[in-house]
Amino acid sequence: xxxxxxxxxxxxxxxxxxxxxxxxxxxxxxxxxxxxxxxxxxxxxxxxxxxxxxxxxxxxxxxxxxxxxxxxxxxxxxxxxxxxxxxxxxxxxxxxxxxxxxxxxxxxxxxxxxxxxxxxxxxxxxxxxxxxxxxxxxxxxxxxxxxxxxxxxxxxxxxxxxxxxxxxxxxxxxxxxxxxxxxxxxxxxxxxxxxxxxxxxxxxxxxxxxxxxxxxxxxxxxxxxxxxxxxxxxxxxxxxxxxxxxxxxxxxxxxxxxxxxxxxxxxxxxxxxxxxxxxxxxxxxxxxxxxxxxxxxxxxxxxxxxxxxxxxxxxxxxxxxxxxxxxxxxxxxxxxxxxxxxxxxxxxxxxxxxxxxxxxxxxxxxxxxxxxxxxxxx
Length: 378
Ligand SMILES: [Mn+2]
Known about the structure:
The structure is a single chain. This protein is an alpha/beta fold. It has 3 domains: 239 residues, 4-Layer Sandwich (Purple Acid Phosphatase, chain A, domain 2); 65 residues; 49 residues, no CATH class. A 6-stranded mixed β-sheet has the order 4-3-2-1-11-12, with helices on one face. The protein has a 6-stranded mixed β-sheet with strand order 5-6-7-8-10-9, covered by helices on one side. Helix 5 links the parallel strand 13 and strand 14. Helix 1 packs parallel to helix 2 and helix 7 runs antiparallel to helix 8. It is globular. The two termini are 43 Å apart. Bound molecules: manganese (II) ion. Manganese (II) ion (MN) binds next to loops.
């Protein structure tokens, strides 16, 4: 009894504002669908963030449609929930996944919180914010009750859990333990854990969505899971996808700048696609703008995008010691806004800061919009 568990495909995400990066996310999704067809599972579960935005660009909708239609033609049903990215923060609004109902996608929602696929119970709920976690926990108890008479049961959620990340919405103790497999999404790292009598798993994102996912990718790859719930304990096989483009992360010494540039460029020469290069230059006394110019010249035609950081030795010498954490912007914003006595406002502010400093203006705009729309709904 095999199925595919996938999540966080983020179609429509345009990293660094580059159409090439948008296409990389489409390409890896197409590849994932081909792999699914190759594996011939009985069904597929997508645990949220199919799209980057709740109003996805046309090409993202089309990519999803082609993939889901391909699964329909192969008689492979797909079950999906809305993640925090593809959820519409307005009451009774429908997530974009609903568009593929006629293509065979079964949306797990508050209205249809579970389905039966042969002997397998598949239940779950869309993403719920921390403010709605009480509702979610009640919903989980109802779903658990409905699942009890079935031989095998799967719980599908898109949430952060305190056991794995700091910014969580629910605690591990809030999740019913009777399910055979917890098919979760939201955390972009791959996680497989023992839970209750079964397993709890996050397949992670299918592409490098933030540069801090690079280390996890190097260690664990990116892709999805092929799960077999036939036996007493689910068996989970990692299926890796081949990312269309390389991410390079290099730490170089200023005194070896020229040697390092030629070393990196001779490596890049052999790549089929221009990579994304993350460079940190450190050591020695140098001017950032001069080094920036040199790097820009060296890599502007060989890399798709150059992200550079400079840590010269002559920096910070005149700055007073502010103590650890004094410059943590999140803490500073929270401190500043504490008179508002409104956690949502400070969350909006830190969220906007994060998205905008990473260059994701569209997401920032959406966050602001959702915040104000939410005000009128509540
Ligand atoms: Mn995600």
